[in-house]
Amino acid sequence: MPRRDSIPVTGPPDASSPDFVTEASRFFAEINGPLVGALSIRTGDRATAEDIAQEAIARAWADWENVGLMANPRGWVFRVGFNLASSHWRRLTIRRRAERREAATAESTVPGPDLTTVDALTLDEALRSLSRRQQEVVILRHFVHMSVAETAEVLGISEGTVKTQTHRALASLRVELEVDDAHR
């Protein structure tokens, strides 16, 4: 919903006006770093994160006349970025499954290590063990440093759900990373 105090009296913002372009440019310059950082954590790959961030920012720019008037345009861009990252992971998962099926049907004469068993999990792997919602909550709360309220707004969930998901995610991470009580 647009902020009432930011709606011009003369009509919608003029995309060609210098103020409009300056405000949008400043916004995108400020959000790019945190967005790429959050998406890097979400995707595990900086190049992919940069591509997804560019797409999210391009979508915001294309509709800046509406997005710029939103109460939380930052949250909108993060939500779009996370949705794009989820789409990316779905496509990647489908491709990997197909590759595994192909590999399983082909005979291999060279024995190798079982790469499915890993003794120690990295933080990236531990994050991947969380549900998508828990990953998003942890990234926004602990890596982007959004408040509970901001996180709830970005993800479209209640503040209580943010707190519950954060608690459960951190408990799971402690188990996955074998963090004992002395290190809390």
CATH architecture of the largest domain: Orthogonal Bundle
What is the CATH domain class of the largest domain?
Mainly Alpha
Major sheet characteristics:
none
CA radius of gyration is 20 Å
CATH topology of the largest domain: Rna Polymerase Sigma Factor, Chain: A
CATH superfamily of the largest domain: RNA polymerase sigma factor, region 2, helix turn helix motif
Structural class: mainly alpha
- Distance, first to last CA: 41 Å
- Strand percent estimate: under 5%
Helix count, per DSSP?
A: 8
Q: Helicity level, as a percent range?
A: 55-70%
Oligomeric state as shown? single chain
Write down the domain tally. Answer: 2
Task: Tell me, briefly, the overall form.
Answer: globular
Helix/strand order: HHHHHHHH
3D architecture notes:
This protein is mostly helical and 184 residues long. The chain folds into two domains: 11-112, RNA polymerase sigma factor, region 2, helix turn helix motif (Rna Polymerase Sigma Factor, Chain: A), CATH 1.10.1740.10; 113-184, Arc Repressor Mutant, subunit A. Helix content is 67%, strand content 0%. The protein contains eight helices and no strands. α1 (18-43) packs across α6 (132-143), α2 (46-62) crosses α4 and α6 packs across α8 (159-176).
Describe the protein's topology.
Layout: H1 18-43, H2 46-62, H3 64-67, H4 73-105, H5 123-128, H6 132-143, H7 148-155, H8 159-176
How would you concisely characterize the structure shown here?
With 184 residues, the chain is mostly helical. The chain is built from 8 helices and no strands.
